[in-house]
Amino acid sequence: MTTNKTFVFDVYGTLFDVHSIGKACETYFPGKGESISETWRQKQIQYTFLRQAMGKYAPFSEVTRDALRFAADLHGRPLSLKEEDRLLEAYQSLSLFPESLEVLSHLKEKGHTLIIFSNGDPLMLHPLLKKAQITNYIDHILSVDTVKQYKPTPAAYHLILDTIEEPRSDIVFLSSNGWDISGAKAFGFTTAWINRSAQPVEGLHQPPHYEYSTLNPLPTW
Amino acid sequence: MTTNKTFVFDVYGTLFDVHSIGKACETYFPGKGESISETWRQKQIQYTFLRQAMGKYAPFSEVTRDALRFAADLHGRPLSLKEEDRLLEAYQSLSLFPESLEVLSHLKEKGHTLIIFSNGDPLMLHPLLKKAQITNYIDHILSVDTVKQYKPTPAAYHLILDTIEEPRSDIVFLSSNGWDISGAKAFGFTTAWINRSAQPVEGLHQPPHYEYSTLNPLPTW
């Protein structure tokens, strides 16, 4: 009996700490790095939802720049194009969460199939994964940019089924974003919510199958 | 030469102050009414975007209950069904902004066509408008519930064109929500952003045609 499973990992907030960018933000916003990082992330996600509804897809790297610009404007300190570029470059050096590397390594050793599935377009996603030296553990790197539909649309999640032939419920979908988990659950995946910031379950009537505070419990599956 | 125009008003946040609910929230969350109101509104809007992307439409009254539940959970004080019902009932008695009534009355006197266009389903929208005694000034009350597509989808904005036969750019669309203005601008309406909380323009590359801090300048159009 094989116990090999397919694990699908979200990237931003799940494997990587998006708020590790706060330090880089401090350079241009002294004492406000954390606040900028919070607004930046919040608008980045919101703009994917809004562009999805408007039918105006733009790659995540552009959305990320637009969100940074809003955050800077909100804090009354607009950035030059060069300053924006520097912060966006720093977004390709986000820190992994402390356990990410070891968990990926353990799961890979056990023979599981590991997939990365992200809103990030290749332009920003690949340098991040390469710098963090995790590509060796990953079987497939998937980006919604292929279908130009953001999570949590069914069209986005379907990309995974186009890549591996497995029943949806056999696929374990991991994300720290509650809304991503809701979307993946509605789509039919088995979901494990990495609830890093101890949030309540989203009010979307799609509670996760499993809930952990970090990725650490995964290798014992 | 006729100068009659069609003005389309958003409801929540534009004519009515959604945060006037904060007082009612104080009953169950002493000292936290404002914070609850903020989270409630934020999740209410977010859930419309998420349900839109997931293809899981639910009426705004349900979404509003789900968002309230999340806000209560986040603050560690879950509500009973009866308490939820009371706060949702209070949502039908939101306060108009100080100038709303006079502006509607002036525009109507001048012979303009006034339309209300809201995410709110009739169940929650009609009692609110009736209690505030503004229905006499309004020519058409439109809800996205008719098409079951939330703003900012083109399908939602198209409801307005199904109601009045006018070129899009002759229709003046008013909202305090920057993202709603972005959607309406992308759709082709003439947009006036009632930027009540002095926010930066949303990073969606659809800046408003006009920007005011209240509805007061409208009667001078």
TrEMBL record, chains A, B:
Which organism encodes this protein?
Alkalicoccus saliphilus
Q: Name one Pfam family in it.
A: Hydrolase
The cross-references to InterPro entries, in alphabetical order and at most eight, read: 2-HAD (IPR006328), HAD-like_sf (IPR036412), HAD-SF_hydro_IA (IPR006439), HAD_sf (IPR023214), PGP-like_dom2 (IPR023198), S-2-haloacid_dehalogenase (IPR051540)
Q: What is this protein called?
A: Haloacid dehalogenase type II
Q: Spell out the molecular function terms from Gene Ontology.
A: hydrolase activity, acting on acid halide bonds, in C-halide compounds
Instruction: Answer yes or no on keyword Signal.
Output: no
Would you identify the family this protein belongs to, as annotated?
A: Belongs to the HAD-like hydrolase superfamily. S-2-haloalkanoic acid dehalogenase family.
What keywords is this UniProt entry annotated with? Hydrolase
Superkingdom, taxonomy of origin: Bacteria
